[in-house]
Automatic annotation (TrEMBL), chains A, B:
Record-annotated membrane-spanning stretches: none
PROSITE patterns xref list: HTH_TETR_2 (PS50977)
UniProt protein name: TetR/AcrR family transcriptional regulator
DNA-binding region (UniProt annotation): 35-54
Domain of life assignment: Archaea
GO molecular function: DNA-binding transcription factor activity; transcription cis-regulatory region binding
InterPro entries reported in the protein's UniProt record: BetI_C, Homeodomain-like_sf, HTH-type_TetR-like_transc_reg, HTH_TetR, Tet_transcr_reg_TetR-rel_C_sf
Organism the protein comes from: Salinirubellus salinus
Domain HTH tetR-type: 12-72
Recorded coiled-coil stretches: none
Keywords of the record: DNA-binding, Repressor, Transcription, Transcription regulation
Pfam families hit by this protein: TetR_C_6 (PF13977), TetR_N (PF00440)
Amino acid sequence: MSEAPWMEADRTVGQRELLEATFRVLRTHGHSGLSIGRIAAESGRSKATLYSHYDDRDELVRDALVVATGRLTRRLEALETDDPAAALDATVELLLGPASTVEPSIVAAREVVVELRAEAAVDDGLREVLTAFDDRLYDYLRECLRVGIEHGVFEPGDPAILAEHVAATLNGALVASVSTDREVASRVRAGLHAQLEPTRQGS
Amino acid sequence: MSEAPWMEADRTVGQRELLEATFRVLRTHGHSGLSIGRIAAESGRSKATLYSHYDDRDELVRDALVVATGRLTRRLEALETDDPAAALDATVELLLGPASTVEPSIVAAREVVVELRAEAAVDDGLREVLTAFDDRLYDYLRECLRVGIEHGVFEPGDPAILAEHVAATLNGALVASVSTDREVASRVRAGLHAQLEPTRQGS
Protein backbone atom coordinates (compact mmCIF):
# COMPACT_ATOMS: atom_id res chain seq x y z
CA MET A 1 0.00 0.00 0.00
CA SER A 2 1.40 3.41 -0.94
CA GLU A 3 1.97 5.96 1.78
CA ALA A 4 -0.81 8.49 1.23
CA PRO A 5 -0.31 11.92 2.87
CA TRP A 6 -2.85 11.09 5.57
CA MET A 7 -0.97 7.99 6.72
CA GLU A 8 0.15 8.66 10.26
CA ALA A 9 3.26 6.57 9.56
CA ASP A 10 4.37 9.51 7.38
CA ARG A 11 4.60 11.75 10.43
CA THR A 12 7.69 11.93 12.63
CA VAL A 13 7.43 10.70 16.23
CA GLY A 14 7.49 14.33 17.38
CA GLN A 15 4.66 15.28 15.02
CA ARG A 16 2.57 12.34 16.12
CA GLU A 17 2.96 13.34 19.79
CA LEU A 18 1.81 16.86 18.94
CA LEU A 19 -1.11 15.60 16.85
CA GLU A 20 -2.35 13.32 19.62
CA ALA A 21 -2.02 16.22 22.09
CA THR A 22 -4.04 18.42 19.69
CA PHE A 23 -6.74 15.72 19.53
CA ARG A 24 -6.94 15.58 23.34
CA VAL A 25 -7.09 19.38 23.77
CA LEU A 26 -9.76 19.71 21.04
CA ARG A 27 -11.93 17.03 22.61
CA THR A 28 -11.63 18.55 26.11
CA HIS A 29 -11.63 22.28 25.42
CA GLY A 30 -13.05 22.63 21.91
CA HIS A 31 -11.58 24.72 19.12
CA SER A 32 -11.80 27.91 21.19
CA GLY A 33 -9.50 26.36 23.82
CA LEU A 34 -6.91 25.20 21.33
CA SER A 35 -3.91 27.39 22.18
CA ILE A 36 -0.29 26.62 21.32
CA GLY A 37 0.57 26.79 25.04
CA ARG A 38 -2.06 24.20 25.94
CA ILE A 39 -1.04 21.84 23.12
CA ALA A 40 2.63 22.12 24.12
CA ALA A 41 1.78 21.44 27.79
CA GLU A 42 -0.45 18.49 26.86
CA SER A 43 2.31 16.96 24.73
CA GLY A 44 4.92 17.50 27.44
CA ARG A 45 7.07 19.50 25.01
CA SER A 46 8.10 23.14 24.81
CA LYS A 47 6.53 25.66 22.44
CA ALA A 48 9.93 25.83 20.69
CA THR A 49 9.73 22.09 19.95
CA LEU A 50 6.23 22.57 18.58
CA TYR A 51 7.46 25.31 16.24
CA SER A 52 10.27 23.05 15.03
CA HIS A 53 7.60 20.66 13.67
CA TYR A 54 4.90 23.07 12.50
CA ASP A 55 5.06 26.67 11.24
CA ASP A 56 2.09 27.79 13.31
CA ARG A 57 -1.10 26.70 15.04
CA ASP A 58 -3.13 26.73 11.83
CA GLU A 59 -0.74 24.28 10.15
CA LEU A 60 -0.89 21.93 13.15
CA VAL A 61 -4.70 22.09 13.38
CA ARG A 62 -5.04 21.45 9.65
CA ASP A 63 -2.71 18.46 9.94
CA ALA A 64 -4.80 17.13 12.84
CA LEU A 65 -7.86 17.26 10.57
CA VAL A 66 -5.94 15.55 7.73
CA VAL A 67 -4.99 12.72 10.13
CA ALA A 68 -8.52 12.42 11.61
CA THR A 69 -10.27 12.30 8.24
CA GLY A 70 -7.52 10.01 6.91
CA ARG A 71 -8.13 7.46 9.68
CA LEU A 72 -11.84 7.32 8.81
CA THR A 73 -11.33 7.28 5.03
CA ARG A 74 -8.69 4.55 5.17
CA ARG A 75 -11.01 2.36 7.25
CA LEU A 76 -13.93 3.05 4.93
CA GLU A 77 -12.04 2.28 1.76
CA ALA A 78 -10.85 -1.04 3.18
CA LEU A 79 -14.47 -2.28 3.32
CA GLU A 80 -15.48 -4.62 0.50
CA THR A 81 -18.35 -3.23 -1.54
CA ASP A 82 -19.08 -6.64 -3.10
CA ASP A 83 -21.23 -7.30 -0.01
CA PRO A 84 -22.94 -3.90 -0.02
CA ALA A 85 -25.34 -4.54 2.87
CA ALA A 86 -22.46 -5.54 5.16
CA ALA A 87 -20.36 -2.60 3.89
CA LEU A 88 -23.16 -0.17 4.69
CA ASP A 89 -23.58 -1.67 8.17
CA ALA A 90 -19.85 -1.32 8.77
CA THR A 91 -19.95 2.32 7.59
CA VAL A 92 -22.79 3.13 9.97
CA GLU A 93 -20.91 1.41 12.81
CA LEU A 94 -17.70 3.30 11.94
CA LEU A 95 -19.39 6.72 11.99
CA LEU A 96 -22.21 6.22 14.53
CA GLY A 97 -21.33 3.14 16.59
CA PRO A 98 -21.25 3.68 20.38
CA ALA A 99 -17.91 4.50 22.00
CA SER A 100 -18.15 1.14 23.80
CA THR A 101 -17.83 -0.88 20.58
CA VAL A 102 -15.71 1.38 18.35
CA GLU A 103 -11.92 1.73 18.74
CA PRO A 104 -10.86 4.80 20.75
CA SER A 105 -8.71 6.11 17.87
CA ILE A 106 -11.80 6.16 15.62
CA VAL A 107 -14.00 7.78 18.28
CA ALA A 108 -11.31 10.46 18.70
CA ALA A 109 -11.11 11.03 14.93
CA ARG A 110 -14.91 11.43 14.66
CA GLU A 111 -14.98 14.04 17.44
CA VAL A 112 -12.09 15.98 15.87
CA VAL A 113 -13.96 16.09 12.55
CA VAL A 114 -17.09 17.47 14.28
CA GLU A 115 -15.08 19.96 16.36
CA LEU A 116 -13.40 21.41 13.26
CA ARG A 117 -16.45 21.46 10.93
CA ALA A 118 -17.74 24.78 12.26
CA GLU A 119 -14.34 26.42 11.94
CA ALA A 120 -14.17 25.25 8.31
CA ALA A 121 -16.87 27.81 7.50
CA VAL A 122 -14.28 30.57 7.99
CA ASP A 123 -10.99 28.68 7.32
CA ASP A 124 -10.18 27.72 3.73
CA GLY A 125 -7.51 25.18 4.72
CA LEU A 126 -9.90 23.18 6.91
CA ARG A 127 -12.67 23.58 4.34
CA GLU A 128 -10.48 21.97 1.68
CA VAL A 129 -9.75 18.94 3.89
CA LEU A 130 -13.43 18.44 4.76
CA THR A 131 -14.51 18.85 1.14
CA ALA A 132 -12.08 16.06 0.19
CA PHE A 133 -13.35 13.89 3.08
CA ASP A 134 -17.01 14.33 2.13
CA ASP A 135 -16.11 13.68 -1.54
CA ARG A 136 -14.55 10.34 -0.62
CA LEU A 137 -17.41 9.36 1.69
CA TYR A 138 -19.80 10.20 -1.15
CA ASP A 139 -17.79 8.24 -3.77
CA TYR A 140 -17.61 5.23 -1.47
CA LEU A 141 -21.34 5.30 -0.69
CA ARG A 142 -22.27 5.76 -4.35
CA GLU A 143 -20.28 2.68 -5.33
CA CYS A 144 -21.72 0.68 -2.43
CA LEU A 145 -25.28 1.73 -3.34
CA ARG A 146 -24.74 1.13 -7.07
CA VAL A 147 -23.63 -2.46 -6.43
CA GLY A 148 -26.43 -3.02 -3.90
CA ILE A 149 -29.13 -1.69 -6.25
CA GLU A 150 -27.74 -3.75 -9.15
CA HIS A 151 -27.88 -6.92 -7.02
CA GLY A 152 -31.36 -6.17 -5.67
CA VAL A 153 -30.01 -5.83 -2.11
CA PHE A 154 -31.19 -2.22 -1.98
CA GLU A 155 -34.31 -0.65 -3.44
CA PRO A 156 -34.07 0.85 -6.92
CA GLY A 157 -32.96 4.49 -7.05
CA ASP A 158 -30.34 6.90 -8.35
CA PRO A 159 -27.06 6.06 -6.55
CA ALA A 160 -25.80 9.66 -6.93
CA ILE A 161 -28.83 11.14 -5.17
CA LEU A 162 -29.03 8.36 -2.57
CA ALA A 163 -25.32 8.60 -1.74
CA GLU A 164 -25.56 12.35 -1.07
CA HIS A 165 -28.63 11.74 1.06
CA VAL A 166 -27.01 8.96 3.11
CA ALA A 167 -23.78 10.99 3.53
CA ALA A 168 -25.80 13.96 4.87
CA THR A 169 -27.71 11.66 7.23
CA LEU A 170 -24.52 10.09 8.61
CA ASN A 171 -22.80 13.45 9.05
CA GLY A 172 -25.91 14.96 10.65
CA ALA A 173 -26.31 12.10 13.11
CA LEU A 174 -22.62 12.27 14.01
CA VAL A 175 -22.78 16.04 14.61
CA ALA A 176 -26.01 15.72 16.65
CA SER A 177 -24.57 12.92 18.79
CA VAL A 178 -21.63 15.16 19.75
CA SER A 179 -23.51 18.49 20.08
CA THR A 180 -26.69 17.44 21.93
CA ASP A 181 -27.81 15.05 24.68
CA ARG A 182 -30.26 13.36 22.29
CA GLU A 183 -29.97 9.67 21.47
CA VAL A 184 -30.07 9.72 17.67
CA ALA A 185 -27.74 6.98 16.40
CA SER A 186 -29.98 3.94 16.91
CA ARG A 187 -33.05 5.53 15.27
CA VAL A 188 -31.03 6.85 12.34
CA ARG A 189 -29.54 3.38 11.87
CA ALA A 190 -33.07 1.89 11.78
CA GLY A 191 -34.17 4.66 9.40
CA LEU A 192 -31.34 3.93 6.96
CA HIS A 193 -32.22 0.24 6.90
CA ALA A 194 -35.90 1.07 6.32
CA GLN A 195 -34.97 3.49 3.53
CA LEU A 196 -32.65 1.22 1.59
CA GLU A 197 -33.82 -2.34 2.08
CA PRO A 198 -36.74 -3.71 0.05
CA THR A 199 -37.99 -5.87 2.94
CA ARG A 200 -38.95 -2.81 4.94
CA GLN A 201 -42.65 -2.92 4.04
CA GLY A 202 -42.86 -6.62 4.83
CA SER A 203 -42.86 -7.38 1.10
CA MET B 1 -49.13 34.76 21.02
CA SER B 2 -47.22 34.49 24.29
CA GLU B 3 -43.74 35.93 24.51
CA ALA B 4 -41.53 32.87 24.56
CA PRO B 5 -37.94 33.39 25.80
CA TRP B 6 -36.62 33.17 22.23
CA MET B 7 -38.79 36.02 20.96
CA GLU B 8 -36.42 38.82 19.96
CA ALA B 9 -39.06 41.35 21.01
CA ASP B 10 -38.20 40.31 24.57
CA ARG B 11 -34.70 41.72 24.19
CA THR B 12 -33.89 45.39 24.84
CA VAL B 13 -32.72 47.51 21.90
CA GLY B 14 -29.18 47.39 23.32
CA GLN B 15 -29.27 43.61 23.57
CA ARG B 16 -30.55 43.24 20.04
CA GLU B 17 -27.70 45.42 18.72
CA LEU B 18 -25.18 43.23 20.54
CA LEU B 19 -26.84 40.02 19.32
CA GLU B 20 -26.79 41.15 15.71
CA ALA B 21 -23.11 42.15 16.11
CA THR B 22 -22.39 38.69 17.57
CA PHE B 23 -24.08 37.08 14.55
CA ARG B 24 -21.93 39.14 12.16
CA VAL B 25 -18.65 38.40 13.99
CA LEU B 26 -19.47 34.66 14.20
CA ARG B 27 -20.24 34.45 10.48
CA THR B 28 -17.08 36.34 9.51
CA HIS B 29 -14.52 35.10 12.04
CA GLY B 30 -16.02 31.90 13.45
CA HIS B 31 -16.27 30.98 17.11
CA SER B 32 -12.51 31.27 17.60
CA GLY B 33 -12.64 34.94 16.53
CA LEU B 34 -15.51 35.83 18.84
CA SER B 35 -13.88 38.18 21.36
CA ILE B 36 -15.67 40.72 23.51
CA GLY B 37 -13.55 43.47 21.94
CA ARG B 38 -14.57 42.49 18.42
CA ILE B 39 -18.28 42.24 19.30
CA ALA B 40 -18.18 45.63 21.02
CA ALA B 41 -16.41 47.22 18.02
CA GLU B 42 -18.85 45.60 15.56
CA SER B 43 -21.84 46.91 17.55
CA GLY B 44 -20.30 50.39 17.81
CA ARG B 45 -20.57 50.24 21.61
CA SER B 46 -18.03 50.10 24.42
CA LYS B 47 -17.11 46.95 26.29
CA ALA B 48 -18.65 48.58 29.39
CA THR B 49 -21.99 48.86 27.56
CA LEU B 50 -21.73 45.21 26.59
CA TYR B 51 -21.16 44.21 30.22
CA SER B 52 -24.19 46.26 31.27
CA HIS B 53 -26.37 43.94 29.15
CA TYR B 54 -24.62 40.57 29.62
CA ASP B 55 -22.55 39.17 32.49
CA ASP B 56 -19.89 37.74 30.20
CA ARG B 57 -19.11 36.47 26.71
CA ASP B 58 -20.57 33.03 27.41
CA GLU B 59 -23.94 34.52 28.39
CA LEU B 60 -24.03 36.65 25.21
CA VAL B 61 -23.03 33.73 22.94
CA ARG B 62 -25.64 31.47 24.53
CA ASP B 63 -28.28 34.17 24.01
CA ALA B 64 -27.24 34.47 20.35
CA LEU B 65 -27.85 30.74 19.96
CA VAL B 66 -31.24 31.03 21.75
CA VAL B 67 -32.24 33.79 19.31
CA ALA B 68 -30.94 31.93 16.22
CA THR B 69 -32.67 28.63 17.08
CA GLY B 70 -35.78 30.57 18.14
CA ARG B 71 -36.06 32.24 14.73
CA LEU B 72 -35.95 28.87 13.00
CA THR B 73 -38.29 27.12 15.46
CA ARG B 74 -40.88 29.89 15.35
CA ARG B 75 -40.94 29.74 11.56
CA LEU B 76 -41.17 25.97 11.60
CA GLU B 77 -44.00 25.83 14.10
CA ALA B 78 -46.03 28.34 12.06
CA LEU B 79 -46.22 25.84 9.17
CA GLU B 80 -49.51 23.98 8.87
CA THR B 81 -49.04 20.21 9.15
CA ASP B 82 -52.50 19.53 7.68
CA ASP B 83 -50.79 19.75 4.27
CA PRO B 84 -47.80 17.62 5.22
CA ALA B 85 -46.14 17.53 1.77
CA ALA B 86 -46.15 21.33 1.57
CA ALA B 87 -44.98 21.59 5.19
CA LEU B 88 -42.05 19.28 4.47
CA ASP B 89 -41.12 21.28 1.36
CA ALA B 90 -41.23 24.48 3.40
CA THR B 91 -39.03 22.90 6.10
CA VAL B 92 -36.44 21.84 3.54
CA GLU B 93 -36.49 25.34 2.01
CA LEU B 94 -36.15 26.94 5.47
CA LEU B 95 -33.09 24.85 6.40
CA LEU B 96 -31.48 24.19 3.00
CA GLY B 97 -32.88 26.77 0.57
CA PRO B 98 -30.25 28.88 -1.26
CA ALA B 99 -29.32 32.26 0.22
CA SER B 100 -30.88 33.87 -2.87
CA THR B 101 -34.41 32.71 -1.97
CA VAL B 102 -34.33 32.61 1.84
CA GLU B 103 -34.56 35.74 4.02
CA PRO B 104 -31.18 37.04 5.23
CA SER B 105 -32.24 36.78 8.90
CA ILE B 106 -32.91 33.05 8.43
CA VAL B 107 -29.65 32.46 6.53
CA ALA B 108 -27.81 34.21 9.38
CA ALA B 109 -29.61 32.08 11.99
CA ARG B 110 -28.69 28.85 10.15
CA GLU B 111 -25.02 29.79 10.01
CA VAL B 112 -24.96 30.73 13.70
CA VAL B 113 -26.43 27.32 14.59
CA VAL B 114 -23.74 25.53 12.55
CA GLU B 115 -20.95 27.74 13.95
CA LEU B 116 -21.94 26.96 17.54
CA ARG B 117 -22.67 23.22 17.13
CA ALA B 118 -19.02 22.21 17.51
CA GLU B 119 -18.58 24.33 20.62
CA ALA B 120 -21.65 22.67 22.14
CA ALA B 121 -19.57 19.49 22.51
CA VAL B 122 -17.61 21.19 25.30
CA ASP B 123 -20.12 23.82 26.53
CA ASP B 124 -23.14 22.62 28.54
CA GLY B 125 -25.08 25.88 28.06
CA LEU B 126 -24.92 25.70 24.26
CA ARG B 127 -25.56 21.95 24.36
CA GLU B 128 -28.81 22.51 26.27
CA VAL B 129 -30.06 25.06 23.69
CA LEU B 130 -29.22 22.77 20.74
CA THR B 131 -30.80 19.74 22.44
CA ALA B 132 -34.03 21.77 22.81
CA PHE B 133 -33.82 22.91 19.17
CA ASP B 134 -33.30 19.38 17.83
CA ASP B 135 -36.13 18.14 20.10
CA ARG B 136 -38.53 20.66 18.57
CA LEU B 137 -37.40 19.94 15.01
CA TYR B 138 -37.93 16.24 15.74
CA ASP B 139 -41.39 16.78 17.30
CA TYR B 140 -42.47 18.92 14.36
CA LEU B 141 -41.23 16.40 11.77
CA ARG B 142 -42.82 13.47 13.62
CA GLU B 143 -46.21 15.19 13.58
CA CYS B 144 -45.82 16.17 9.93
CA LEU B 145 -44.82 12.60 8.97
CA ARG B 146 -47.58 11.03 11.10
CA VAL B 147 -50.26 13.09 9.34
CA GLY B 148 -48.68 12.45 5.91
CA ILE B 149 -48.47 8.68 6.47
CA GLU B 150 -52.05 8.58 7.78
CA HIS B 151 -53.31 10.40 4.65
CA GLY B 152 -51.23 8.28 2.27
CA VAL B 153 -49.16 11.30 1.19
CA PHE B 154 -45.99 9.62 2.51
CA GLU B 155 -45.01 5.96 2.41
CA PRO B 156 -45.91 3.82 5.42
CA GLY B 157 -43.32 3.79 8.21
CA ASP B 158 -42.69 4.56 11.88
CA PRO B 159 -42.95 8.38 12.26
CA ALA B 160 -40.57 8.33 15.26
CA ILE B 161 -37.78 6.61 13.32
CA LEU B 162 -38.42 8.56 10.11
CA ALA B 163 -38.47 11.91 11.95
CA GLU B 164 -35.08 11.25 13.56
CA HIS B 165 -33.73 10.18 10.18
CA VAL B 166 -35.02 13.27 8.36
CA ALA B 167 -33.80 15.60 11.16
CA ALA B 168 -30.29 14.08 10.90
CA THR B 169 -30.35 14.45 7.11
CA LEU B 170 -31.41 18.11 7.28
CA ASN B 171 -28.84 18.95 9.96
CA GLY B 172 -26.11 17.08 8.07
CA ALA B 173 -26.85 18.81 4.78
CA LEU B 174 -26.91 22.20 6.52
CA VAL B 175 -23.55 21.55 8.22
CA ALA B 176 -22.00 20.24 4.98
CA SER B 177 -23.22 23.24 2.99
CA VAL B 178 -21.49 25.59 5.44
CA SER B 179 -18.29 23.55 6.05
CA THR B 180 -17.43 22.34 2.51
CA ASP B 181 -17.51 23.56 -1.09
CA ARG B 182 -19.74 20.66 -2.10
CA GLU B 183 -23.19 21.26 -3.56
CA VAL B 184 -25.35 19.00 -1.39
CA ALA B 185 -28.71 20.73 -0.87
CA SER B 186 -30.38 19.96 -4.21
CA ARG B 187 -29.47 16.25 -4.14
CA VAL B 188 -30.53 15.86 -0.52
CA ARG B 189 -33.82 17.56 -1.35
CA ALA B 190 -34.37 15.07 -4.22
CA GLY B 191 -33.35 12.21 -1.91
CA LEU B 192 -35.90 13.21 0.74
CA HIS B 193 -38.69 13.32 -1.84
CA ALA B 194 -37.65 9.89 -3.18
CA GLN B 195 -37.54 8.49 0.36
CA LEU B 196 -40.91 9.72 1.53
CA GLU B 197 -43.21 9.88 -1.46
CA PRO B 198 -44.90 6.73 -2.75
CA THR B 199 -44.64 7.81 -6.40
CA ARG B 200 -40.88 7.52 -6.32
CA GLN B 201 -40.70 4.16 -8.06
CA GLY B 202 -43.15 5.21 -10.75
CA SER B 203 -45.94 3.26 -9.06
